[in-house]
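To whoever is on call:

I kicked off a structure prediction for a single chain this morning and the downstream step that reads the tokens threw a length-mismatch warning. I double-checked the sequence; it's 401 residues and nothing unusual in it as far as I can see. Pasting both halves so you can look.
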Amino acid sequence: MDATAPSPAPKRAGFIALFIKLGGKFISLLLKLVKGLKAGKIALAGGSFAAYALLFSWEFALVLIASLLFHEMGHMWAMRRYGMKTKGIYLIPFLGAAAVAEDRFPSRKAETVIALMGPLWGFAMATATFGAYFATEEPLFAALAGWMAMLNLFNLLPINPLDGGRVMKSIAYSVSSRLGTLFLWFGIAAGFYAAWHFRIALLWLLIIAGVIELLGEHRRIRRVQDREKVLAALGAALGVPAEPETVIARIALVHGHLSEGVTGTYQPALLDKNPYTGSFSPREWMTYFVARIEGAAKRALITRRKLLGGAEYHATYIPPELWLAPSPHDRDREKADRSLDDDSPLFAFLRDSKDSMPTMRPAETALGFLAYAGLAVALIALMFAVSHVPAAEAALSVFMD
């Protein structure tokens, strides 16, 4: 029998029998899925189906969309396990699908697990499809399994924002921020080379997304570092540990003392000089204290750099939350008194930990890399097994046309 010829009728009958047996359950699941989708999602799904049906066949478009949805359901499942709020799955014509969350990743470990769950579920679907080949001897199942494995293996490429890029980015950032940033640059460079050399238009979109994420990571890390520097500076000036609530409590205590005119019994380092002459009222003490707090916070963020001629300049960005004090000549008592309320911008800045992302421990980092590498090897092994199935390629060609 010719290995390139389509499979005989008895094998087709096995495929039809399996579809009849599982078709009702699949349709029921599909109806529940459609019921939960909003109009915009339905429009995107319809556009995706039409696009893939034009490129291939409508049957292959259904299989493609089903595999994309199952892959993204793995991400959604993991997001919910970590307590993240989700918006749902969006099918994007010609670009695939995306599981969209409302929250940020709570940790590098969570980002790694969530990124791996999509390809893992995709591998499970491909394995089940390959199992259907052994049950029916229909080579089309083997071909579809190989195609699904290839799709998920592509997602494991270490290029951000693909799943593999997210995994390796989290691993790199868990080692050090510098290594994480270098990895993002490496992903952008690798994507640029692949897009140019292999003429893959999709990679240009991935490069743009990678640049946007790199800028976001840089902003996030800069804000976390600024917060840590300000906490350290204020903690040292006030003689307390550099912890948000401890620093805030000491600032509130000193501010309260000064508002009551208690200046002789409590002299922290921030009040070591008197800029005024003559009488020094409680309001002036409070204004001065706020100005010294602001100065200490700003000095923590100043970066001194030398020009070619040896001259120095100060390069820094001061977050708006650190502009606290009214002018020493401003006699607006209300503005001075409210500068360090409990809901002040400074206290909100010190308490703000949303940009902090806990890294993985060394054992978790190693386990994440092993899971990533093991999943990639398993997908390659599945594709290798499919390549030895007679008539699989021919069956897929007929199915796609």
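Update from on-call: the warning came from a stale cache, not from the record. Cleared it. Sanity check on the structure: The chain has a mean pLDDT of 78.
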